[in-house]
């Protein structure tokens, strides 16, 4: 993958939207994630800093802007630095 891009499932796992990478991939493939308003079912979809994601995770729906791609899955404070919440997602 090119610099400045990351797989969507990997980013969701790094940002702690899913407990495992396979759960993150399933979240995407089941159609629970939108990238810049467009639903995607491809876990390998490349995302960039600045993209806006709508994630309908089991613990709630969030609308977030990607701030950083991350290099590993760290603790919750590290994960929260990867994104900013930009508003309430419509259910």
From TrEMBL:
Gene3D superfamilies (alphabetical): RNA-binding S4 domain
Domain of life: Bacteria
Residue ranges annotated for the RNA-binding S4 domain, each copy included: 6-71
CDD domains for the chain: S4
SUPFAM superfamilies cross-referenced by the UniProt entry: Alpha-L RNA-binding motif
Coiled coil location: none
The protein's name in its UniProt record: RNA-binding S4 domain protein
Species name: Methylorubrum extorquens DSM 13060
Classification of source organism: Bacteria, Pseudomonadati, Pseudomonadota, Alphaproteobacteria, Hyphomicrobiales
């Amino acid at each position: 993958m090119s610099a400045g891009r990351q797989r969507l499932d990997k980013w969701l796992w790094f940002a702690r939207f899913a407990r495992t990478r396979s759960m993150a991939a399933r979240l995407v493939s089941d159609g629970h994630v939108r990238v810049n308003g467009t639903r995607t079912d491809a876990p390998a979809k490349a995302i960039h800093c600045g993209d806006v994601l709508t994630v309908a995770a089991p613990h709630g729906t969030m609308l977030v802007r990607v701030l950083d791609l991350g290099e590993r899955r760290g603790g919750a404070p590290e994960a929260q630095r990867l994104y900013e919440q930009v508003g309430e997602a419509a259910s």
